[in-house]
From TrEMBL:
Entry-linked InterPro entries: ComplexI_NDUFA9_subunit, NAD(P)-bd_dom, NAD(P)-bd_dom_sf
Coiled-coil ranges per UniProt: none
Record's protein name: NAD-dependent epimerase/dehydratase family protein
Domain of life according to the entry: Bacteria
UniProt GO MF annotations: protein-containing complex binding
Amino acid sequence: MNILVTGGTGVLGRSVVDRLVTAGHRVRVLSRDPSRASSVRDVEPWAGDLRALPSLGPALSDVETVVHCASDVRSPVEVDVAGTANLVAAMRGLDVRHLVYVSIVGVDQIPIKYYRAKRDVESIVEHQNVPWTIQRATQFHPFVAEMLAKSARRPLIACPRGLRFQPVAVEEVADRVVQHVESGAAGRAADLGGREVLTLRDLASTWMLATGGRRRPLLPVPFPGAAGRAFKAGANLCAGHSSAGLTWTQYLDGYRSVRGAV
């Protein structure tokens, strides 16, 4: 199958691309900097920008399936929303048979800018003419680790009361995406989350032990507003659709092994 992957040089995209190639598919990776994709084995790097509609038509030539992983938390309206509208416009009249989009659990319930943008993208996908699949997932392990690393640059780590996460292995989400590619359009697929639901305090405590750095005090803070209420209500969780993959502790064990080998 001929497949175009947007965001194919990102955390999820690389894992998806690797699995698609291993499964024998012909993969084209769309990137503003195609040299970033040239290090990925057996793929066709392709220069293109979701914000530039004229660059997308050539990238879609002979493509049967599009896996849309591209996202930019800093510019979600310009990249995610407008970029997806451009992608859909470029697909019109071509031979694309399936559009797979990766979203986030709770985007329809949590009123923050990035999540609103992701829900707007879902709406674009749902209302275009190509058969589609939307796979929502909870936060990836590396995302949570990066969030904690940034927080640890300060003298203390703020832990909003009632904030819980259900982190999931990137590899599991990539496996699910490839399943959708090979089985065909599924519409709104079942959400995918990790095996554990943990408080931010628990995540931070175990992360500090794994990294071996100076421990930071964990400061409970309020999480006001509609977004806080949604998170406290578990809108970002999908306990009924948990995976069988790596737990947070197992992910950190691998993190320790890598650090110890350096």
